[in-house]
Predict the structure.
Amino acid sequence: MTESSPLPRADGPPTPRLVSKAFGTPRMLSIEAVLRKRLIICVGAGGVGKTTSAAALGLTAARHARRAAVITVDPARRLKDALGLSALSIDPHPVRLEGGTQFDALALDTKRAFDAVIERFAPSPAVAARIQANRLYQELATGLAGSAEYMAMEKLHELLHAHRYQLVVVDTPPSAHARDLLAAPSRLTNLLASRAVSLLQAPVNLLSGTSGVGRMALSTLLKALQRWTGLDLLNDLSDFVTAFEDMIEGFTLRAEEVSRLLKAPTTAFVLVTTPEPHTVETTIGFHRELTEGGFPVAGIIANRVLAFPRLDDAAQVLLELDAPLRAKLLRNYGDICELSRRDRHALKRLHDETKAPLLAVVPAASEAPTSLSGLERFATLLVPASA
Amino acid sequence: MERMQAARVLFVTGKGGVGKTTVTAAIGQRAAGLGQRTLIVETANDGSLAHLFGHRRLASTPQRLHAGLDAVRVDARELVEQYFAGVLRFQWLSDRLLTSNTFNALTAAAPGITEFLLLEKILGWIEPGFAARRRRYDLVIVDGPATGHAIKLLRTPRTISTMVPGGPLGKIARRLLALLADHQRAQVLLVSLPEEMSVRETIETQEILEGDLAVHVTRPVINRIFPRHFTAPEAAQIEQRSDGALGAEAAVLAAARFAVTCRREAERHVALLRRTLGVNPILLRQLFSPDLRATDLAPFGRTLGRVVFE
């Protein structure tokens, strides 16, 4: 790059380095250092470009001759087409780049992946079938907060365990809370072990162990729940818990392993955000939950950022153009500057709140990459070759 | 005495950050301006609605925001706690029992409980009770949860009425079903941005809501449409002039090209939505004013009002 002036180059929106300079945030950890990890987990609100970022990180790693896999959950249809993932598959699918390099991509179907786990842990196919047919299971597998997250973690464990890859990049599902993701492996076991569920399984046994008042309260609660759910569901639940009992140990062990993996020094959590205020607040929340949970947050990727500066000499530019067009150009520039100012404020707030390093700032391109070449362009914005 | 009609309810939904709250506030203000007693129900609890009207935070009982316009905040967890506290009678008992683990187990064991309690709460504001001589509101706008949850929310009465056909719960479920099936009284408004993910989500949601759930969906809203600043020949001229431009000129031209692409992308996505759903979306323009206040939303209110009150 040439001497950086505080202005964007003529061939497009401002370059990332320029933007990070404009925002004055230090790059404490470069994105290259993140790419040397074994596991990268991209976390962020929905629609911020998380899948694109994850794919671009995998692509860049592959360009650096690393065997990489990208696990994605529900990517935008056109990106899926670009990656050849139209036939949503839980099996690794090679994405071939020009020059012979390639990386693997996997798309996750929560329900099917959940079924696979049940089949693996269940003592017999008959038990697996019984669980899968259970109404409560169907609710848990598709509806329970964190089940998609659980599956992403599950698949991740499997991939890293097989030692096929030097780097696995995970694009997490857009959950409202990072803790859904992180608590996911233990959520199911907690649920099954929790008092209320055991209570439903064998209410009489449990009640005998508690004090008089406690017993009264529990039985009232039980009645309320019964009134709520109807007896069928209560039977379903009891059936479900009984069938699940033999599997709890396998689940718990796995949950502990995944939890260790997530906190390992070879793991990096990357927060992906846009400067949109609502998204920034979500990202701040994610950051807080992750750091409080002891998870290694490497930094933030800010996507779709506008960074046009105020001009002092606007009166002097493009004087040869027609007055009406020139006026429109300047008015438009004023509008874009206002949006840039908002972005700057939002990112400043993000930085003040999290103190997390800004790994990359990707300029707003007004369209998401929809082809492999588009993804490659995005990757060069994310990880500039010169950096 | 003439039997009183229930108020109308409008669920505003869309992905986080698309402008649900902006749309809600604009409609609320417009409705109040037209003399309708209006209540906004905030489910997100991030304070953004309150901020638009210069308040800090909403309370859990309706408060006045503006002449004829009230707002209230509801929190799902609070609702469930209240419900079980009511069942258990003693606060300290429910405090002890409703630890987070038990809470999770309860909500998993009773699918739809949070959604149902939220709808029940809303019903209380819509339908006149025995004691009420007249209903309190003409219009209730739910600044709804994000799309996926909204589908779950609107499906709940059906699930509950199948699960618990009789009893007080079943009765409420049937009242809710009747409300949602009445296209004059209950409507859903989908808000999206002119972007692929967002538009695709709107299309899928509309198909589920209208097909599967048979609720009435108004014309969708697409927010933040970039203004069309430049004609096609001007865009070409900008493109050409960008070659080799430097400094401030390069910046002005790059900003113009950005605006041209944004506009083109917006038009493409509007066309996609129009083609797929066969309806004309309501377009709201990108606003550039520094600190948005409710009063800035009057033009949006007029545009949206034509759809909601037509």
Summary: The domain at 8-225+279-308 of chain B is CATH 3.40.50.300 (Rossmann fold). Residues 247-277 of chain B form the longest helix (31 residues). The radius of gyration of chain B is 22 Å.
